[in-house]
Amino acid sequence: MANLAPFLKLSPSPRVRTSPFWPGVVDAGVVSCSVYNHMLLPTQYRSPEEDYRHLKTRVQLWDVSCERQVAVSGRDAADLLSLFFPRSIETMVTGRCYYVPAVDQFGRVLNDPLILKLASDSYWVSIADSDLILWIKGLSAGLGLDVDIHEPDVSPLAVQGPLSARLMERVFGPEVVRLRFFGFDRFGFDHRDYLVSRSGYSRQGGYEIYVDGSENGMTLWRALMDAGHDLDVGPGSPNYTERVEAGLLSFGGDISSKNNPYECGLGKYLDLENADRCLALEPLKRIREQGPERMIRSLSISGPPVPNCQDPWRLSKNGEFAGKVTAATWSWDHNQNVAIAMVEAPYWDAETCLEVELPDATAEATVRSGFFS
Amino acid sequence: MANLAPFLKLSPSPRVRTSPFWPGVVDAGVVSCSVYNHMLLPTQYRSPEEDYRHLKTRVQLWDVSCERQVAVSGRDAADLLSLFFPRSIETMVTGRCYYVPAVDQFGRVLNDPLILKLASDSYWVSIADSDLILWIKGLSAGLGLDVDIHEPDVSPLAVQGPLSARLMERVFGPEVVRLRFFGFDRFGFDHRDYLVSRSGYSRQGGYEIYVDGSENGMTLWRALMDAGHDLDVGPGSPNYTERVEAGLLSFGGDISSKNNPYECGLGKYLDLENADRCLALEPLKRIREQGPERMIRSLSISGPPVPNCQDPWRLSKNGEFAGKVTAATWSWDHNQNVAIAMVEAPYWDAETCLEVELPDATAEATVRSGFFS
Questions:
Q1: How confident is the model at residue B8, as a pLDDT?
Q2: Angle at CA B246, nearest 5°, toward B242 and B247?
Q3: Option in B31, B137, B138 nearest A9 (CB)
Q4: pLDDT score, position A2
Q5: Is B349 helix (H, G, I), strand (E, B) or coil?
Q6: Same domain for B325 and B355?
Q7: C-alpha distances in angstroms, B256 versus A14, B101, B129?
Q8: Does B47 lie in the same domain as B186?
Q9: Contact B1 A14 (CB under 8 A)
């Protein structure tokens, strides 16, 4: 399949929404975007290498408004979530985030969101790129449950990078840096309370601020930018190279509704012993017992820097299909091409050598024992 | 809100899929794309005016693979569809397409698809830009219905423009041009049968070929291109100016799940007298009785050509909110700016003059009695 034309422009459309931070994003010199949950997701500001090195040494503001919230509340809220999240909802702790795949009744992954427990009858499901709200609404309508389901006007702004704590405490006060990983609480800024979690789609540490009310977006963006001059704060985005190194998955790219959680390497986030109400309990138990037939793996790819991976690249061994690469990039820190791939069981052991079909060449791919941490 | 930076590039991602026709699209010189149903949707090849004039005088091939099909089949298929399409499913005729809004139990529009009735227990729901499959799956799971729901490997290729019939009969034979509007049937090409409908997202006439099996896409693309040299066949796409002139709506842009079908001007596609099973029957009857509070309207906007409408533009009358423009463009054929807007009831009468807030100016907008046909 032909590669994406590198000059391709993105058409404007009200169908693809901008964010509350958009004026700041444009001022900061955004170069490219993707589309995610019907919104623009900025993806690059400076060169890919500059964005990457800056993230790993400084602190960045990311417009990740496209991580939309599905607010689920009411008497049957926990019961409803129990039907498609394969773990106990009741034992979740208020004020904490949980990464759990959402599954249909066959155990196929519909999305890999974070769940934020706001109260025993109130949750935010912070979604990856699919309209999970439609599944939740449909299931609830079919069962006639007593629950309110809507997308609030809440737009996450991520503060990521090793200097993120220093920036955050200047704006939200010293209490904010006491948050534990995946904890959240409310912190004051400019006479308003903001829900802040210690979380984010990088391994560099950071926070996500759930900005409630689009009209408040730019005040916060500017305050964070202004407070961090000496920290070299700058704009950034979920970083492709950093996330491939770390093995942070992209729903719709690396994994999809064709996969079960075990194939995605997400088995550790399931708790089937406390998921009696889950519609997929029996299928998931069967898959766990039999073991998955393929699984997400970290790869190295030989040779010079690979191009962007638009359509998945075929992996083979002696001509036999061995899997597919879904994300690949040159790693400046590790001086090699790194990749995320869905690899078939006979080929997934560490050190297995495979052949990968790049758009205009073939190269050697080696299965690694794990991702870079 | 700031306008979309005109230079914005689209990042490649396997999360945003290419189509079976992609090599042809790139060869034909695609300039820009949007993202629709997690796929690339080509939006421009030559200048906007050249694309527009060519569509209105010749014949174009459109890669509209992003119009995905949700295949619903099985014993309970018609019953399931009856729950969220406010009309009779049973009385639909096999071999015909139906444009009907899909609604939730409150009567809010979830998508505005075409339904293709393949058999009394088998339907394709050809969707606009939202994951309607998740609503259908959720509703079915909640009710425990006996139905199969999946997205087949089917990618529509549209042939649009006044010369489309002449091109189609050269490839599919003389029978294909006997199709009536919104009829479909199977026609042979290259030893395979293709489902072809007389339909498409333009008012210039044309067909949609539902290519079953991605591996067949380029053979058909090339055959149509080769057969139409003397007809000046060329690449094209759903044309922004032509669709705004004609009032063809864009779900997620002009209308959304905040709207009911009457607000969208889609009341004529409902048949509440034969929609007893529809979950939204009572809310829709109430809205019909009370009348909607706002409605889609055609507008003219004074002055020189307006820029692209990224974020909706506010309409007002003496300072009062009067609605919002969601799509606007210079019409070369009509020598004026034309627009689609959701206009509040007190202001929706034809000839009402309103003020519209463009990104960098204000202009006069006049409500028209209807769209250009």
A1: 86
A2: 115
A3: B31
A4: 43
A5: coil
A6: yes
A7: 11, 11, 10
A8: yes
A9: no
A311 CB within 8 Å of a chain B CB: yes
- Which residue, chain included where needed, has tokens 């408040």? A216
Q: Which domain holds residue B87?
A: 69-150
The shortest CB-CB distance from A310 to any of B1, B5, B12 is to: B12
Determine the longest span between alpha carbons in chain B, in angstroms: 65
Q: What ipTM does this complex have?
A: 0.97
What CATH number did the domain enclosing A161 receive? 3.30.1360.120
Q: Do B139 and A136 touch (CB under 8 A)?
A: no
Beta-strand relationship, B32-36 and A9-10: parallel
Tokens at B326, concatenated? 């969601």
Which residues of chain B are within 8 Å of residue A254 when distances are taken between CB atoms? 14
Other CB atoms within 10 Å distance of the CB of residue B75: 11
Q: How far apart are CA A299 and CA A328, in angstroms?
A: 9
Domain CATH code at residue B145: 3.30.70.1400
Residue B10, classified by CB atoms within 10 Å of its CB into exposed (0-12), middle (13-18) or buried (19+), is buried
- The crossing angle, in degrees rounded to 10, of helices B217-227 and B164-172 is 120
**Which chain A residues in 176-215 lie under 8 Å from chain B, judged by CB atoms?**
none
CB < 8 Å to B140, chain A: 138, 142
pLDDT in tens, A41-92: 999 999 999 999 999 999 999 999 999 999 999 999 999 999 999 999 999 9
Structure tokens, A118 = 């706001």
pLDDT at B2: 43
A257 vs A100, A108, A354, CA distance in Å? 14, 5, 26
Interface test with A, best of B4, B7, B13 (most A CBs within 10 A): B13
> What pLDDT score was predicted for residue B1?
40
Specify whether B173 is located in the same domain as B35: yes
Interface of B with A in 82-121 (CB under 8 A): 104-105, 110
